[in-house]
Amino acid sequence: xxxxxxxxxxxxxxxxxxxxxxxxxxxxxxxxxxxxxxxxxxxxxxxxxxxxxxxxxxxxxxxxxxxxxxxxxxxxxxxxxxxxxxxxxxxxxxxxxxxxxxxxxxxxxxxxxxxxxxxxxxxxxxxxxxxxxxxxxxxxxxxxxxxxxxxxxxxxxxxxxxxxxxxxxxxxxxxxxxxxxxxxxxxxxxxxxxxxxxxxxxxxxxxxxxxxxxxxxxxxxxxxxxxxxxxx
Length: 232
Description:
By secondary structure, the chain is an alpha/beta fold. It has 6 helices and 9 strands. The protein has one domain (2-223). The protein is 39% helix and 22% strand. Strands 1, 2, 3, 4, 5, 6, 7, 8 and 9 form a 9-stranded mixed sheet that branches. α2 (85-106) packs parallel to α6 and α3 packs across α4 (145-158). The protein starts with a helix and ends in a 9-residue tail after the last helix.
């Protein structure tokens, strides 16, 4: 009976720590390696500011308001050849989810089509790298004093908490007929101490993909001087 009570007490402390100290599902990392860029020449990418992607490019000569339709290509998995079967399955789930997130966010403003044509953009999105959360390490760094201390040290040094997941992605938008580059972004996000990240080890990565989909919609909206731009 005492053992059961002790387990309940530990669980209560754990849940309380997560609810009080947990950041969101993901937040922007401090840095990303420009060498990770696969969709565009990294030389054109410039450091983003505030809530922009870590690196980005926007064609200064393009009028985004002229585009009414959008092609969303299947999401690319850059490390596909390096992954074992289990890893490939996990990455493919992320890619599938990213495709769904992108369609859900962007169909609000654009007609989603499958063929190039006038007034049509093409969006390509690539998952460069991803890592799942580590439940045991996540728990220990959330409720144990020594774990919390080490977690704070790691965050101070790296900008990433202990045991959480992360994901790096890149996107580019082109004119569907001419191939002219309209915009591109390279970004990396790391997980927060959301309770869901303990149960679903890919929760942090998936929530980052959802954030990026909504951020892409927001950026496109602001570039065309829209009146209903919603920050993610």
